[in-house]
């Protein structure tokens, strides 16, 4: 119905509109990103996962490809959670250091992407895992979320 409940139980208008949570998933972020805005992705990792990805992009264009503000990719074979961005068709330097690998096959997870002025802060299951400094200056242009790979989506917000 387009409404989510906030912590006080009263309905609030959802900032994101998603028809069905089917992977691969592509949805619109109303008004784009801005400092203080948070994206929540909840799901369940598949039983025998190879990888899954969550990307925030500037539109949905495939040709030319849309700029990718941040791409998060969980790689189970290497137990890595890598992140990168693609600006004007050029991928930047990949970052992969994490204190631990937070995803477990066949288990639920909660990823929060908090947009702050200089960076994205990434939390998994309530624990801050890493920061990713913005490589795209115009935060409001980041208006699309794409999710693919070996997972089921249970909630987006």
From TrEMBL:
Keywords: Lectin. Residues 25-157 form the Galectin domain. One of its GO terms (molecular function) is carbohydrate binding. PROSITE patterns: GALECTIN. SUPFAM superfamilies: Concanavalin A-like lectins/glucanases. PANTHER family: GALECTIN, GALECTIN-RELATED PROTEIN. Does not bind lactose, and may not bind carbohydrates. This is Galectin. The gene is Lgalsl.
């Amino acid at each position: 119905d387009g409404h989510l409940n906030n912590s006080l139980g009263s309905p609030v208008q959802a900032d994101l509109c998603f028809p069905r949570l089917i992977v691969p998933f592509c949805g619109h972020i109303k008004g784009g990103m801005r400092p203080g805005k948070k994206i929540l992705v909840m799901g369940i990792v598949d039983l025998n996962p190879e990888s899954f990805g969550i990307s925030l992009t500037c539109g949905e264009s495939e040709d030319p490809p849309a700029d990718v503000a941040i791409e998060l990719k969980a790689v189970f074979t290497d137990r890595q959670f890598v992140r990168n961005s693609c600006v004007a068709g050029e991928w930047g330097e990949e970052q992969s250091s994490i204190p631990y690998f937070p995803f477990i096959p066949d288990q639920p997870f909660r990823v929060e992407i908090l947009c702050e002025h200089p960076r994205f802060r990434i939390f998994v299951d309530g624990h801050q895992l890493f920061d990713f400094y913005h490589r795209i200056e115009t935060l409001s242009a980041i208006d699309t979320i794409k999710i693919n790979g070996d997972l089921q989506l249970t909630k987006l917000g």
